[in-house]
Request: fold
Amino acid sequence: CFAWRNILAAAYPGVRIRRRGVFGAYAAGVGINAIAPARAGDLVKLYLVKRRIEGATYPTLAPTLVVETLVDFVVATGLFAWALTLGVLPSRQIVGQLPSVDWAWPFRHLWAAAAILGVLFLLGLGAFLVARRRVADFRRQFERGFAILGDVPTYLRRVASWQLLSWVLRLASVFFFLRAFDLAATVRNALLVQVVDSLSTLLPFTPGGAGTKQGLLAYVLHDRFSVSAVLSFSVGMNIALVAVNVVVGFACLFLLARTIRWRRLAAAQKKDESEGAAPA
Reply:
């Protein structure tokens, strides 16, 4: 959340952006994503933070979430490449046979998946072109969301550093969860668990990649631990993390919006977005 706050500050220089408000919006979004599919919490996150930044618009706020994922993408890709060199990840044929793997369907139906992706790309491109025509300053607002990338030293110091620290803390959490479940707590095992966690949320069909995470982890660690031990660890860790995220997230949601009906807030966000485009 500190990294996101700094990205927002660069997008809106001269505007006071409170860390408390950004933390609350970020935590609320994480809490909702923990129990809702398709990253519905991101919509609520944008809605809440928009109300706390004077003059904020969704065309600027949305790209800030993209900027926030850059370090995560690089680190996750590096870990994935490392896991590939170890030969521990399942092949396409095996993925299709694993139970509860959300994105097994695209592997079983490659042509249909490619067609769907193509249609989604065209729809997204069309929506972008339409929005660009309807909103005169759309491009200017959109580019503001990437403003911090124009100052690489500041980006590395105020964004990347926080995100790298978050990765260290994630790995430390996994390490101690392994110890708590009496599994071999090594850096290698913690990294493998993190790789599976990243892959399981690649397509957010289920909250937090539940099901997919357990299926992949059982395969990746099958030669080191029993399946029952891996499932016990994975389910237990997932329940603990979800519980903390939900409690903290919904507490922040209530404090910021005086309601815990996140679906209503998501609908309000979409309504605000459509009303903002109407005058143009």
